[in-house]
Amino acid sequence: MAIALDRKRKRSRNPIVAEDRIAGLVFVLPAMLVFGVFVFGAIIFAFYVSFHDWKLTDRGGIWALFTDPGKTWVGFDNYRHIFGNPDFWTAFRNTSWYALGVVPAQTLTGLTLAVLANQKIKGRTFFRTAFYFPSISSSVVIAIIFLWMYSARGPINFVIQKLGFPTPRPVWLSNPNGVLEMGLNGIGIDNVPNWLAGPSLALLSIMMLNVWTTTGTMMVIFLAGLQNIPGDVYEAAVLDGASRFRQFRDITVPLLRPVTAFVITIGLIGTFQVFDQIWVMSEGNNGGPFRTTTTLAFLVYLEGFRQGRGLGYASALAVVLFAIILVLYFIQRWITSDKRHG
Amino acid sequence: MAVNPDIPNPAHSNVRGSELRTGWSDRLIRAVAYIVLSFVAFLMFVPFIFSVVTSFKSNRDANQLLSLRTLFWPETFYLNAYRTVFDSDISRWFLNSTIVAVIWVIARAFTASAAGYAFARMEFPGKNVLFILVLSTLMIPGMVTIVPKFIILKELHLLNSYGALTLPFAADAFGIFLMKQFFESIPVELEEAARIDGASRYRMFVEVILPNAMPALTALAIFSFQGSWNAFLEPLIFINSADLFTLPLGLAYFRQANYTDWPVLMGGAVVTTVPIAIFYVVFQRFFVEGQVSSGIKG
Q1: Considering its fold, how many domains does chain A have in total?
Q2: B124 neighbourhood in chain A, CB within 8 Å
Q3: What is the mean pLDDT of residues A202-222?
């Protein structure tokens, strides 16, 4: 079919609109079908299952949920159990500390590295490639490598000893002591309440691993954002006599706000779902020393698929997790959009 | 900031054409930048370097106290670890991961380009609502849908098959955005010309749009391949026969089986990472740009 291109440019609208009305729907159908079943249908289904008590081993398969709902229906019981369950609150606390530590850390280091990389330096591409590499490796591989790094005779303890400091006992990933609690004890404050004890050393190890992995991703995003800021804005500021610090504070930071909001958002969503590393690095795979590395996502897995309270309970947990993430998302958006204009 | 009425004296200032800043403070910052960036780059590589070094040690040597030298170079080279690694089912896991990844790529290329084209060029009822729905899938955490997905796949008798690892992921929002973005940049004239020649949308798609979409499709392919290759949660839950393990899953069980045999574990890590490292270095532009474009437009 010969396509003639030698015609004048006209702002012509496609005359055969009626065909599009159908064709458009046909074209989006495959994608929407997948989403319809496996995303939206799944969410609705998750809600439905969360009101039932059902285990993998139960008889009748899932049709029991529909044909004989009376047997399995438990209403809000699952939810009531969740909020009365200390395991849930432990997991919630762990996950909160996790996000509280990792999100600011990866955002700040990503931003710092991006600002540095944005200077007129050679080899920016090399640095970008180097920093991004951990993000594309398998999380399982990285977790396994860091299992060794954190081992008693691994390089991290080696460096610490070389610097003259004591290494933690028990060793990192087996250490259930809260880091904040240890710090406060160190300056003489005892009787630290449970919720203030901070993440355990084991959890902190995984958090540091996470920051190592994702800093590169955040840096790359920030770098693109920085390079989107036109140079003349800075030139005008220099002509006005603005110092570099003022340029950063008054130009860079405000213009980076949408990118920063994005980085924080994906950080929050990601950290509240951390799973792979927890699975690989939790002692005996049970949620860590004294369950101190059990996160909410891992708890869903434990309850649903590992002799826990069943899929109904796990679904309810997942719904609660979803709600938490949504709330955080909206809070975060409200905060980053309502800032005073500098 | 008020405009400074005093124009800087060219004789004093550093304003010189487009190279505005050449003062000593800039050179200092640039030096700091090089040092910090190099150090951090080193930190990014060092765990992988260590894993390679450890993989060539014997189990006994690996458990000795480290010295600065043995951190970066084994005292004696042993290949036992690699023998164990290749004795395992690692080639089977590789094969499974590859098959699943290829199916992912094909499925997503199809669904994303079709949907992307529709959103880019066509007007149809419900277009805006559907687009918002697509957007919203990005907000759904994987953990929320894993239980229902499991149940659905169970009832479709697809558990423990390649279908379980591919069907739920046959479409994704990033891919649709990528293709939509790209199609919007193709000049309308191409389609108008085809229209004049009597082509339907379907023909236009196949004969005009798709052949021109190779750059975007390549980026999409790489992005999808990477996502599939590293997936762990879904294989963990949907698969339970060892001959269907994908690489991350196989490695995780490999780890349980070789609990403290560090050289063997590191050998597994190396063997898994080397191919993707090569792949990454060759195609790195696509990896980074896929992430970036989703970030800026997001």
Answers
A1: 2
A2: 20-25, 28
A3: 92
